[in-house]
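Worked example 2:
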Amino acid sequence: MVWLFLNTLSVVGQGVEDLRLMDYRPQSIYRIPKTTVTKAKFPVIDVHSHDFLVNSGGDLARWVKTMDQYGIKKTIVLTMSTGARFDSLVAKYKAYPDRFDLWCGFDFTGYDKDPKWTDHAIRELERCQKMGAKGIGEVGDKGLGLFYDRPTKAYGMHIDDPRMKPLLKRCGELGMPINIHVAESYWMYQKVDSTNDGLINAAKWHVYLNQPDILNHEQMIKTLENAVRDNPGTTFIACHLANCDYDLTILGRMLDKYPNLYADISARYAETATIPRYMKAFYERYQDRLLYGTDMAITDHMYQTTFRILQTADEHFYEIEQYNYHWPLHGFDLSDAVLKKVYSENAEKLLYQKKR
């Protein structure tokens, strides 16, 4: 780590009379420590990424070089795919078998017409596992149904639907965890007005509850809990802290109750770095159930910022371009013991220990 101190810079800003909130760019004037984290303190497994570099093998080489630079020993690529698309991704990533694990999706073909569609879905799941899939994800539902998977989306069917039961059970039998995204952060359900402190992102990702048959935030979390409860032999990873960042007692209660539930911290750094003391206590309590993930474009600054939030005690810094919020962030200053677990030890135990 390189220690620097913030300088008060003289910049030309926009006058307040014509200022739009989306153009507001506060700059901290506090002369307090700023830590530049050039590498993760301990080896890292990123359990939540995607095929962000979609072009040539050279792109993958650059990604691996960046991973080496920042101490990422393995990245899990959540493809959300089955069939030919999944096979093409297997071919793409095979040059780096020790650095990337690919997770497949579910094949929902015929889910709304064929009562035996799960037979086909299970066969495709087993085929993808033979092709190298280590898990399933990211399965996604923001209220209207499971719509992340490719090529077929399952609108109107949620993760706790009885039709999903055989498929979820088979995942447990195959030792394939399910990474699942339910709902969105709570700001996206609030009115998009002057009272919403996450306003810019709330407007961009707003969930419109006036749509027919859409589930609200509480109902979405209930679908997750139902699936976890009813499939104790299957491991679930609730990504983005189950989108309970506004009230983590909701997630905490489920973690206390269900040993087959884990959570990844991906893409919720800004939402939680506003409450660092609370978050530090949460990480300490659930240090065996939380997993490092990113779910953001692969850049130096992205890795540096996630490590800064987790590792340092830095206060009152802005990352507006990275996260699109206008509030200041603060580091959690997690202990070495907690960092080791979140960065890789929990993932190693969950994903890579040999089954007995």
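The two ends are 41 Å apart (CA to CA). The chain has a mean pLDDT of 93.
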